[in-house]
Amino acid sequence: MEKWKIGIVMRIPIMLVSENFGSKIKIGIFRIIGKKIGKYIENDVKGAMLGNCEDYVISSIFSSLIWGVLIFLLSFSLLYYQGKDVTPSFIVFIAFFIVFFILHLYYPKIILRKIGEEGDRYLIYALRDMWVQVSSGIPLYTVLSNISKGEYGPISDDVRNAISDISSTESEINALEKLSMRTASESFRKVLRHIIVSLRTGTGLSKSIETTLNTLILEQHRKIRDYSSSLNLFLLLFLVFAAVVPSILITFLSVLSVFGVFMITNETMIILIVISFFTQLFVVGLLSTSRPKIWL
How confident is the model at residue 70 (pLDDT cuts 50, 70, 90)? Predict the structure, then answer.
């Protein structure tokens, strides 16, 4: 496994069977469902390197069924031993099967997004390398070949596919157009479009790459400024939920307890503390996920 793939989960954490388990299922109805649904997630599954999309859909069905059965058995046991009606267990089974099936279908997009972010990490370095080589008069095919052999993570992998297309009598423009549709990196897609326009119009490729490189760097700086300006809002939210809201609630409940409307118990305080704690965790998590990934 290449270095850049080490930090990316290349399989579905909630998948209880292998992604290729579906290839062993030859039952007609499952193959039809896999084919019908698979066409909608084909690009995501292939981009996430999860194998055949039809097999993946079938594997998702069986994994979701297992999740549904496990939760059904748990809910059925709880209701049965409490002497209650067990009918809701069947509703729970259907609901969780649908929820987990949707999660299975959506997760390739999450992996694809991670691959795209990993590609953005190497993009500026790869572009600098391309700009230096093109400025030195090296032909585009040789530049792309060098990039494909370099350690630029998903960028090198994508360019390697383009080199393969060009080697099989595909024109450079067509190969780059196919690459722009395949790559998971939105920034790399924009770069490829600029290169394609330069090749078609005959304008200087070196100048086009330099302009695109400077634009990406400016965009990274803009993300830093935007994040810095949003820190004040996150700090305000954290202080509100960590101190202001709990204090106001406790004061309000204390006033009510004086008139005998509401009594403050240990359980009430524990609930307030737990709610405040998880709300703070949510704000911190929101702050962490909104932090831009910058590589300059």
Answer: very high
Return the structure tokens found at 171.
Answer: 């024109």
pLDDT digits (tens, 9 = 90+) for 138-163: 988 899 999 988 888 888 888 988 89
Q: Which of 10, 23, 261, 29 is nearest to 112 (CA)?
A: 10
- Is residue 263 over pLDDT 80? no
- Domains of the chain: which residue ranges? 3-113, 118-216, 223-289
Structure tokens at 226: 């935007």
Give yes or no for residue 279 having a pLDDT over 60: yes
User: pLDDT band at 1, cuts 50/70/90?
Assistant: very low
Please tell me the predicted confidence (pLDDT) of residue 296.
59
CA dihedral 138, 144, 146, 152 (to 10 degrees): 140
3-state secondary structure the chain: CCHHHCCCCCCCCCCCCCCCHHHHCCCHHHHHHHHHHHHHHHHHHHHCCCCCHHHHHHHHHHHHHHHHHHHHHHHHHHHHHCCCCCHHHHHHHHHHHHHHHHHHHHHHHHHHHHHHHHHHHHHHHHHHHHHHHHHCCCCHHHHHHHHHHCCCCHHHHHHHHHHHHHHCCCCHHHHHHHHHHHCCCHHHHHHHHHHHHHHHHCCCHHHHHHHHHHHHHHHHHHHHHHHHHHHHHHHHHHHHHHHHHHHHHHHHHHHHHHCCCCCCCHHHHHHHHHHHHHHHHHHHHHHHHCCCCCCC
Average pLDDT of span 247-253: 82
Summarize the confidence of residues 197-202 as an average pLDDT. Answer: 86
Quick check: 60 and 108 in contact, CB under 8 A? no
Measure the CA–CA gap between 21 and 15, rounded to whole angstroms. Answer: 11
Residue 65 has pLDDT above 90, yes or no: yes
